Amino acid sequence: MMDASPSRAALEANRISKQYRRKQVLEHVSLRVSGGEVVALVGENGSGKTTMMRICVGLLRPDEGTVHAAGQIGYCPQQPALLDLLSAEEHLMLFGAALGLPPAVAIETGRAILSDLRFRVGDPTHAGELSGGSRQKLNLALALLGDPSLLMLDEPYQGFDHGSWVSFWEHVATWRTQGRATLIVTHVLPDPTAVDRVVELTVPASVSGGKPR
Amino acid sequence: MSWTERVRAAVQVEGQQLCRRWRALLLLTVLPLAFYFASSGHNPQAPVIGGIALAFSLAGAAIFASLAARAVDHRLVLSGYRPIELLLARLLVLEGYGTAVAIAFSAVMIAKSDPARPGLLITGVVLVGIVAVPFGLMLGALLPSELEAVLVMIGAVGIQLTVDQMARVAKLLPFWGPRQLLEGALGTPISTAHAVETGLAYAAVLLAITFALANRRLRIASHARPTVQPPIA
User: Fold this and answer.
1) In this prediction, does ipTM exceed 0.90?
2) What does the pLDDT read at residue A211?
């Protein structure tokens, strides 16, 4: 299914720097994620994890540095990016069309993903009326639609119950064996083996007054 | 999947969302009717007031549609939509709705006010819709807050309603062309072609600004562009 080999970089970000107004958020941050690898992006609040993720995804331009990505990107933003007046299946059709999937295929594929994530499949409830955890599951399912080889997930389990959280990390292990490259912004790891590497971001020295780690 | 299929999918979704905002739409449709009926008993200019007031409804609907999708549009572009496809879908649905409401509203005003040139009244009210939708979309693209966007819209439409139409500022506002047509419908001599051209030109400029703003806001880095996407033409 995935063509990314474990040694090939699916995502490579080199010496990324970013300022918001005059505040340095990222300073010469580099990271690399290969096919079949899970990398956790961690750090305290304000350390620039989401900014780094948005730069890697391509939604934000860095002031310095370069990003190279291979393959299709599946992105799950921290805040669910959903249309409140649409049901889950209507979201699947809308995003499926962008990915070149006919409506029936988008729904069938999306239902399988949602079912895996313990979402009530076929629920006609509009996204705006779903619980926080269910919205996040739909948010994640849309990132997985189209079988992307590079997953970039920004705290994708917010609002999940414990069972769904455990199930999420089981899926991460499956994606690793499938050869997908996965970058996850996270605060909590179920165990150290759940990821291959941890990249820790710190508040840049120019802001904190200390030395970068 | 071709760009037409992506636009069709986006149109379907825009239509569904518009229908599901029916309460807001109902209120927005009642608003110009209220303006019209409040003045129709004593003011011969009532069709002009009602016609221009339709801009409140349609520009308002466009602002809400634009801002509701703000967070999702970037993600849709990352998935494979082009900004112009999303804008086109929104425009088609809102202009379709606007034209239907404009025709129905014109019929009400023609029946009650019996204007000298009913054809011009219909043209004027439809042109209000044609201009109001890109005006609302532009405000939605320019101002991230609903309140700010709505206040600017109310200001522009309100000034167009109240200011002397021969004043310089009136000619700079978006609904000068449609207003000329509505005045013409009541018997004032006007240049119909000039009024229509002015309205259409204004709509085209507003659309171009909206597209430029959307393109700038929704741009993604080259490494993130989906590789499998058929050409738009």
Assistant:
1) no
2) 40
